[in-house]
């Protein structure tokens, strides 16, 4: 991921830079002490994550982000926790770090940003390639009927095939489009567009009858509301 720092305090910049250097997939493109200094850079460069101090000398970080067209993912950093509620009203905000924060807390925020970015990329794709027993298979996302978990394996089930890989259902829940794919059981994610019918305990897709887990029932029913 490509990131920049907007932070007016040099010691805070140094800490952020040291944290960034510890994460191999995170690349620092530049650091700025003012929002105005970063503004032109954001217009001319592709940036995925901005580490932004809320209290900047020229314009508050929250106000600045509102002026940016198609803003990147934002991780706020500040010494004032009172800003947290208002900042999370902005959809592009990933996390809020209160100074001083540890590397572990920083890493958690970066991981959240990465998952959100991966989900956005995947939701825009029509297909993906997955490695099954050293053979690369093309998987069209809209063809997936459901995804089933079995211990350390997950299987992507379509009308005509079943592809099994080593992975977790949790990982795919975080990156698949949540408007299309819904977890209904600890072992199942279903494609909502492929549901033929359902009742209070089961979902029916093609010839499969899939149980709705007790802990997922309410959220599923809220997502899939029948037209009366």
Task: Summarize the structure in words.
There is one protein chain. By secondary structure, this protein is of the alpha/beta class. It folds into 2 domains: 2-123, 3-Layer(aba) Sandwich (Rossmann fold), CATH 3.40.50; 127-223, OB fold (Dihydrolipoamide Acetyltransferase, E2P) (Beta Barrel). The protein contains 7 helices and 15 strands. The strands form 4 sheets. A 5-stranded parallel β-sheet has the order 2-1-3-4-5. Strands 10-9-8-12-11 form a 5-stranded antiparallel β-sheet. Strand 8 (146-150) and strand 9 (153-157) form a beta hairpin. The radius of gyration is 21 Å and the shape is elongated. The mean pLDDT is 88.
Chart the SSEs and their pairings.
Layout: E1 2-6, H1 10-21, E2 27-32, H2 35-44, E3 49-53, H3 61-67, E4 73-78, H4 84-87, E5 93-98, H5 103-124, E6 127-132, E7 135-140, E8 146-150, E9 153-157, E10 162-166, H6 169-175, E11 181-185, E12 188-191, E13 197-198, E14 202-205, E15 208-211, H7 217-223
Parallel strand pairs: 1-2, 1-3, 3-4, 4-5
Antiparallel strand pairs: 6-7, 8-9, 8-12, 9-10, 11-12, 13-14, 14-15
The CATH superfamily of the largest domain bears the name Response regulator
SSE arrangement, N to C: EHEHEHEHEHEEEEEHEEEEEH
> Main sheet: which strands, in order across?
2-1-3-4-5
**CATH class wording of the largest domain:** Alpha Beta
CATH architecture of the largest domain: 3-Layer(aba) Sandwich
Structural class: alpha/beta
* Total count of strands: 15
Radius of gyration: 21 Å
What is the overall shape?
elongated
Largest sheet features: 5 strands, parallel
Average pLDDT, all residues: 88
Number of domains: 2
Calculate the terminal CA-CA distance, rounded to whole Å.
46 Å
Task: Indicate the CATH topology of the largest domain.
Answer: Rossmann fold
Report helical residue fraction: 25-40%
Strand content is: 25-35%
Which stretches are low in confidence, meaning pLDDT under 50 for 5 or more residues running?
none
* DSSP summary: helix tally: 7
């Amino acid at each position: 991921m490509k990131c920049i720092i907007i932070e007016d305090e040099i010691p805070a910049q140094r800490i952020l830079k040291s944290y960034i250097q510890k994460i191999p997939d995170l690349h620092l493109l530049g650091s700025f002490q003012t929002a105005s200094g970063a503004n032109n850079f954001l217009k001319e460069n592709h940036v995925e994550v901005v580490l932004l101090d809320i209290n900047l000398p020229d314009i508050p970080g929250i106000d600045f982000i509102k002026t940016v067209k198609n803003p990147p993912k934002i991780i706020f950093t500040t010494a004032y926790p009172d800003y947290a509620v208002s900042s999370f009203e902005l959809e592009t905000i990933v996390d809020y770090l209160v100074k001083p924060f540890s590397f572990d807390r920083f890493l958690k925020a970066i991981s959240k940003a990465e998952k959100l970015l991966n989900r956005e990329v995947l939701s825009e794709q029509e297909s993906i390639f997955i490695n099954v027993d050293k053979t690369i298979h093309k998987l069209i996302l809209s063809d997936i009927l459901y995804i089933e978990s079995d211990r350390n394996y997950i299987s992507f089930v379509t009308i005509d095939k079943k592809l099994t890989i080593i992975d977790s259902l949790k990982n795919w829940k975080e990156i698949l489009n949540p408007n299309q794919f819904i977890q209904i059981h600890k072992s199942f994610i279903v494609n909502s567009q492929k549901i033929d019918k359902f009742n209070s305990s089961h979902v029916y897709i093609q010839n499969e009858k899939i149980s709705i887990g007790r802990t997922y029932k309410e959220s599923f029913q809220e997502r899939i509301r029948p037209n009366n």
